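Re: that backbone. C-alpha cells:
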C-alpha cells in the first residue's frame, strides 16, 4: 500500500488509553523523539508515570470524550483504549472495545486529524490447524470467535478499514502486536506465564510464541506515523520462543495433555475462578496452533525493525531490571 507524503507534522497528539502499557510506552517515545509535541491523554484512570501535557478522565464512548478531542485540535489520534483484562460481563467489554472504537473514529473525522492509528492484535489471524509458517499483512484474518479479544479485534479492524476507505484524506493505520512485554507489564497474558506451576502442551505441541518489547511497540508505532503509513502493520520480532523454551526459562516442568482435556480444564478453571490462571478458555487455541508473524512490511516501508528479540522481551517479565541478552533461549 503506497504511502503519501505528510503535509502536517506530528505536533498535537491525542492518545486514548494513555495510562495503559501501550499508551505509557508511546508517551515515553514521543517525549524522546518529538520533544516539542503536545499530548492529550484520555483514559479512565490517570497514569502514575509518563503523564501527558493535558489529561481527560472518563469513558471514551461519551460525547464529552469526543468534545475533548475536538477542543484539542489534534493532527494525530492514537486509539489504544481497550478492555484487555478478561471480565465476566462480555457485553460490557464488547461495548467498550467496539463502540469505543467507533466513537473515536467519529471524533477523529470530526476534528480534522491528518493521521489515525488504532491498536489491533496479532490474534486476529486466529489459531487454526492450517496456519501459515508466518503471517504477513495479506494473510486472511480468521479471528477465533471463542476468544473475545481476537473476535473484538476482528470487528475493530473491519470498522477501521471501512473508515480508511471512506476518509482517504486521513492516513489511517493499525498495528498488530505480538504479546507485549516490558518491565512492570502485568495483565492476564503475562500472569499466565509467571504464575503457572507447569507448562501444559495441548496435544504435546511445542507451539512457538512471539513476544515484543513495549519500547519496540512504541518505536514501531511512531515510525508508522512519521512515515505516513497506511493499513495494517505486524509488530513483532522475527524470532519466537517455544513453550518448552519458556518452561526452561521459568524453571517449571512441561506436561503434555490431550487438547480436549486442556480445553475442559480451561473452562472449569475459568468458571470456578480457581487460582493461578485467569485466562478465558478460548485462549487455549493460541497455545495449540502457532500464530507467528513477520514484520517485513514495517521494515521495508517504515524502516523499523524490533531491537529486542522475543527472548529479550520475555526476560523483562522474569527480571524487570534486566533486559536480557539478544539471543533466543
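Recovered sequence:
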Amino acid at each position: 500500500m503506497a504511502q503519501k507524503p505528510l503535509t502536517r507534522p506530528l505536533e498535537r497528539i491525542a492518545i486514548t488509553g494513555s495510562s495503559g502499557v501501550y499508551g505509557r510506552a508511546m508517551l515515553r517515545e514521543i517525549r524522546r523523539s518529538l520533544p516539542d509535541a503536545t499530548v492529550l491523554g484520555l483514559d479512565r484512570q490517570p497514569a502514575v508515570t509518563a503523564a501527558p501535557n493535558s489529561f481527560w478522565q472518563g469513558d471514551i464512548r461519551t460525547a464529552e470524550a469526543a468534545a475533548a478531542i475536538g477542543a484539542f485540535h489534534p493532527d494525530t489520534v492514537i486509539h489504544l483504549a481497550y478492555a484487555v483484562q478478561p471480565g465476566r460481563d462480555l457485553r460490557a467489554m464488547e461495548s467498550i472495545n467496539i463502540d469505543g472504537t467507533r466513537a473515536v473514529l467519529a471524533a477523529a473525522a470530526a476534528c480534522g486529524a491528518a493521521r489515525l492509528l488504532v491498536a489491533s492484535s496479532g490474534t486476529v489471524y486466529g489459531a487454526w490447524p492450517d496456519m501459515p509458517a508466518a503471517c504477513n499483512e495479506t494473510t486472511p484474518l480468521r479471528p477465533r470467535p471463542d476468544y473475545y479479544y481476537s473476535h473484538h479485534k476482528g470487528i475493530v479492524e473491519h470498522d477501521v478499514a471501512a473508515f480508511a476507505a471512506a476518509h482517504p484524506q486521513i492516513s489511517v493505520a493499525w498495528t498488530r502486536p505480538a504479546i507485549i512485554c516490558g518491565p512492570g507489564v502485568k495483565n492476564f497474558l503475562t500472569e499466565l506465564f509467571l504464575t503457572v506451576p507447569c507448562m501444559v502442551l495441548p496435544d504435546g505441541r511445542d507451539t512457538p510464541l512471539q513476544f515484543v518489547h513495549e519500547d519496540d511497540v512504541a518505536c514501531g508505532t511512531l515510525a508508522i506515523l512519521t512515515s505516513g503509513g497506511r493499513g495494517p502493520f505486524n509488530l513483532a520480532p522475527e524470532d519466537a520462543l517455544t513453550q518448552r523454551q519458556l518452561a526452561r526459562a521459568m524453571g517449571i516442568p512441561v506436561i503434555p495433555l490431550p487438547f480436549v482435556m486442556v480445553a475442559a480444564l480451561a473452562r472449569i478453571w475459568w468458571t470456578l475462578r480457581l487460582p493461578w490462571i485467569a485466562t478465558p478458555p478460548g485462549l487455549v487455541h493460541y497455545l495449540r496452533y502457532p500464530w507467528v508473524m513477520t514484520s517485513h512490511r514495517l521494515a521495508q516501508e517504515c524502516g523499523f525493525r524490533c531491537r529486542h528479540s522475543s527472548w529479550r522481551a520475555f526476560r523483562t517479565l522474569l527480571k524487570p531490571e534486566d533486559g536480557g541478552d539478544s539471543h533466543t533461549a
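Residues 90-111 form the longest helix (22 residues). The radius of gyration is 19 Å.
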